[in-house]
Amino acid sequence: MWCLFTLIYSILILGSAQGVFQNRKSVNPEANMNISQIISYWGYPDEEYNVVTEDGYILDLYRIPYGKLKSNNSAQRLVVYLQHGLLTSASTWISNLPNNSLGFILADAGYDVWMGNSRGNTWSRKHVYLETNSSAFWAFSFDEMAKYDLPASIDFIVKQTGQEEIFYVGHSQGTTIAFITFSTIPKIAEKIKIFFALAPVVSIKHMKCTLFKLAINKFILQAFFGNKEFLPQTSFNNFIGSKLCPRWIFNKICLHILYMMFGHDSKNLNMSRFDVYFSHNPAGTSVQNILHWSQLRYTTHLKAFDWGSTVLNLVHFNKTTPPSYNVTNMNVTTATWNGEKDLLADPEDVNILYSEITNLIYHKSIPHYNHMDFLFGLDAYHQVYHEIIDIIQENL
What we know:
The structure is a single chain. The chain is α/β, with parallel strands linked by helices and about 400 residues long. Helices cover about 40% and strands about 15% of the residues. The chain has helices spanning about 1-20, 35-40, 100-110, 140-160, 175-185, 185-190, 210-215, 220-225, 235-245, 250-260, 275-280, 285-295, 310-315, 345-355, 375, 380-395, and strands at about 45-50, 55-65, 80-85, 110-115, 125, 165-170, 190-200, 230, 285, 335-340, 360-365. Strands 1, 2, 3, 4, 5, 6, 7, 10 and 11 form a 9-stranded mixed beta sheet that branches. Strands 8-9 form a two-stranded antiparallel sheet. Strand 10 (about 335-340), helix 14 and strand 11 (about 360-365) form a beta-alpha-beta unit.
C-alpha cells in the first residue's frame, strides 16, 4: 500500500506541473479541523476534558451536551457514550453532515453525547510521566484499553453528569474492549444501561480483508514499523485527504483503497466527504496492539496479549500463558448490528459471538453493509441510528 501512495504522490507532482489537476472538487473545511472545531463549526456546543487512567495515560474526551436547536437548561439528559474502533478516533462520529453523523443525531434527539479516544490515537498521545516517543509509552494493546481507558472514561462521565447508568455505543474495536471490560469488571458493567455493538469484533479467524492480513503479519509489521506506533495521523493523511482524493483523477483510487480494506458498497458512501475521512484516518495505535490482533488470527477465542515469554506473562497475568476473555460472563443488555459484506467483522465470526452474548435483546444483519457503513453510510440513520434511539426510548 505504501508503494501505491508513493506512486500517487509522484504522479501528483508531475501532473500538477502539467496542469492536469485543474478539474478538482472543493475541499470540506472539516478536513483541516480538530474535533472541537468540527463540533463548533456545525453550531453545536462543545466541551473537552482530559481523563487520566490508572496507569497514567491522558485521554481526550469530547462532549456535545445538547443539540444545536436545544437550549442549555437544567434538565438532566440521558448520557450516550460513543467509542471508536481500531485506527480511528472520536472524529468518526461527526465526520458526515449533522443529519447523518451519530454524534450530532443523538445530541439533536435530546441526549448528552460523550465521545472517547483510546490511548495512542491522535487525541490521546500524552502520559503523566512517559515520553510519547518512548517504547514504554507504546507497550499496550486493547487489553489496557479495556482495563484502564474504558473504566476511567466511564467513571469520569458518571461522576461529571451524576448519571448512575449510561448507554454505550461501540464500533469494531470499540465493541471488543467493551466485551472485555463488561465481562471482567462488574462495577463498570453495572453502569451500562444498554450496550449497542456496531460491527462487533471478538474473533477475526474468518476475516477476509487481505490488506489487514498483511498488516498483522508479525515480521512485516515490525520490519516496517518497529515496536512503537502504527499508522499515526500525519500531514500525509491530510495531504491524501484534502489534496489528492478530491481530485477527479484519484477519486476512484481512494475509493478502491476503502473497498479493499472494509468491503464494497459503492452506493452507500458520501463521495463528497472523502477528504474528511482520509484526513482524520488512520488515527494511529501501537504496534503491540496490531500484534495482539495478529495473535488472534487463527482462533475464535478472545485472549489477552501474549508477551512472548513465560516470565513476562507471569508478571502481567500471574500465569505462564495469557488468559482468555469469556463474553458469557457479561450480563449487560446488548443490541447488535453487523454487515454481511464486512471484510473485518466477518459474518461467520459474528455468528460465533452471538451464541456467547447472554442478554441479547436485538440483532440485525444488514445485507449490503461493510465495516465503515455504520459510520459513514448514507442510509446509516434509517438502517441503524433511529433503531438505537427507539431502543433507548423503549427501555427508559
